[in-house]
Amino acid sequence: MKVMVIGGTGTIGGAVVEQLRLRHEVIVVGARGGQHRVDIEDIAQVRALFGKVGRVDAVVVAAGALHVGPLAELTPEHFHIGLRGKLMGQVNVALVAREFLNDGGSITLTSGVDTEQPIRGAVAASTANAAVQGFVRAAAIELPRGLRINAVSPTVLQESVHLFGELFTGFEPIAASRAALSYARSVDGAETGRVYRAW
């Protein structure tokens, strides 16, 4: 298959690229690197990206900005960071991908463990991640042509503990390569409307 991985230069995305390349042709897309570059918050850029790449069999998104900070300090703008980035950025990709996916193709988005296991400082992040999961479940019943859509909900990664470990006290970090297996399950599997827990 021909698979586009958006966020493919990041920690999770890089592991997903490595996993999927075992079986598929992978196109790596990043905000600042990769074979192509895109700002997923700008749907015009997303359309231009697909216009260049053409038809694909699967799209994976492991990207999207989020705000982390205590509830007492949150403003509407803090929420908008995740709503524009993590939610609408991924929704933009899914909406455009409908037109460029081959029949039976798949879309895989990314949420996060904080959706189901809240942590301090992640109110804005959890809100956006939960919305991603809601979108996936609802979109799955309306996609045409046998298209599938799922989400992966990863926990903190071993590779990122030095950055985010304090937020995830008591959580067992997993290797990015383990998280990548859930993305592979979505791309290579047959299910739709699922949230795969990588934790």
Automatic annotation (TrEMBL):
Entry keyword set: Oxidoreductase
Gene3D superfamilies associated with the record: NAD(P)-binding Rossmann-like Domain
InterPro entries reported for this sequence: NAD(P)-bd_dom_sf, SDR_DHRS6-like, SDR_fam
Gene Ontology molecular functions: oxidoreductase activity
Pfam families: adh_short_C2 (PF13561)
Family designation: Belongs to the short-chain dehydrogenases/reductases (SDR) family.
Protein name per the record: Short chain dehydrogenase
Species of the source: Duganella vulcania
